[in-house]
Amino acid sequence: MNTDSISPAPSAADGRAEAAARPAAEKPYRKGYRLPPELRGDIAAAHRTRPVLTVACALTDAVTALATAAVCAWLLTAAHPLLSVPAALVGCLFIARQLRALENLTHEASHYNWARHHRGWNDVLGWLFSGLPTGGRLSAYRESHLRHHGRFGTSEDPDRRRYAELDLEALRRTSPRAFVSSVAVRITRYQIGWLREVKTDLLATAGVLLWSVLCAALPTALLAGPGAGVLAGVLWLASAFVVLPVLRLVAESDEHVYSDCDTVFDATITNVGLVQRVLIHPHADGYHTVHHLWPGIPHHSLRRVHTTLMAQDPDYARRIRMRRRLLENPRAVSSSS
User: Fold this and answer.
1) What pLDDT score was predicted for residue 311?
2) How far apart are CA 230 and CA 253, in angstroms?
3) Average pLDDT of every residue of the chain
4) Nearest 5°: phi and psi at 7?
5) What separation in angstroms does the CA of 208 have from each of 54, 180, 234, 300, 329?
6) Backbone dihedral region of 200: left (phi > 0), alpha (psi from -120 to 50 degrees) or beta?
7) Who's near 234: CB < 8 A, 6+ residues apart?
């Protein structure tokens, strides 16, 4: 869909008057970037999906998270608290990171980036390997997320609404303490709004609970005893419902700055710092500018496309807004020292 051509549709005389009075921001942002013709072949090739690779990524994320839950649960029952408790806290962070990676693969499925030419399999694989363990309903997420792309920057853009409601652009990145405080005062409202937006229901929540019992608690109980099994389930649920929302909020707050520009290119931020790439934006989610320019490019090609554009398109390299550290305001490369 060419979002540059979308505009609000008046319904009658009153509708025409209302449309005339509607602010310009109600029109979706124009793309604001033109690809050099000589790179069109590279971009077309980058749209190729690789289902086996994406399934392997999802399995790796899930298995390593489950193994971490089991090991941390065993430590809590068998080791001294001075060792086991810190290990469990770090383990919860790692499990949440893997769940965030799975959420990003649900995002991939919403764009049919698992298997573009087999959309039924795309949705089955995306739900089974990434949606089920994270409680994501693919159909609801797709409806919300495609509005974010198609109505970018308008009041119908769910991401912009969350940015406005939570004032995400005002997160204080002047120090770790200020940043943590800014996140803490927003996290409850953020999670409530997120669950409402993606229409998480009792069935999806039951899926997460069932996953924690069958895949985390039961295998651990068989290997290390019932006490460790219960702890593995608790660690999994704490990671999913306490730590994961924090990572998701930080990730979402990284992605856009709506207030000072009116194009998709200028309003989208690429996050390339080590912490972002490893912890906050797994599966190349940090290369968000490329994603918004071409949502059909799958995760395994985003970094390569970004690198190609940085090397071969001076306009992209000069204008792209990037954040190289978590505690940093985004800036165009041309403004960097």
Assistant:
1) 97
2) 34
3) 89
4) -145, 155
5) 21, 27, 12, 27, 35
6) beta
7) none
- Mean pLDDT, 10 residues at a time, the chain of 337 residues: 35 38 67 96 97 98 97 95 94 97 97 96 95 86 93 94 93 95 94 72 77 93 95 95 95 94 95 94 97 98 98 96 93 63
Phi, psi of 58 (to 5 degrees): -65, -45
Cα torsion 176, 185, 137, 290 to 10°: value is -40
- Quote the DSSP letter at residue 295: T
Q: How many CB atoms lie within 10 A of CB 128?
A: 12
Count of beta carbons in the 10 Å neighbourhood of residue 3: 17
Tally DSSP H helices, then E strands, for the chain: 19, 3
Nearest-CA neighbor of 128 among 231, 207, 243, 14?
207
**Contact between 309 and 303 (Cβ < 8 Å):** no
Structure tokens at 326: 């978590």
Smallest CA-to-CA distance from 156 within 168, 166, 167, 143 is with 143
Distance, CA of 211 to CA of 316 (rounded, Å): 43
* 81 CA to centre of own chain: 34
Report d(CA 30, CA 20) in Å as an integer: 19
Ordered DSSP codes for 198-220: TT--HHHHHHHHHHIIIIIIHHH
Strands (DSSP E) contained in the chain are 269-271, 321-323, 331-332
How far apart are the C-alpha atoms of 239 and 228, rounded to whole Å? 16
Sequence-distant (≥ 6) Cβ neighbours of residue 205 within 8 angstroms: 135
AA identity, residue 290:
V
- Is the pTM of the predicted complex or chain greater than 0.70? yes
What residue type is assigned to position 56 of the chain? A
**329 close to 322: Cβ distance less than 8 angstroms:** no
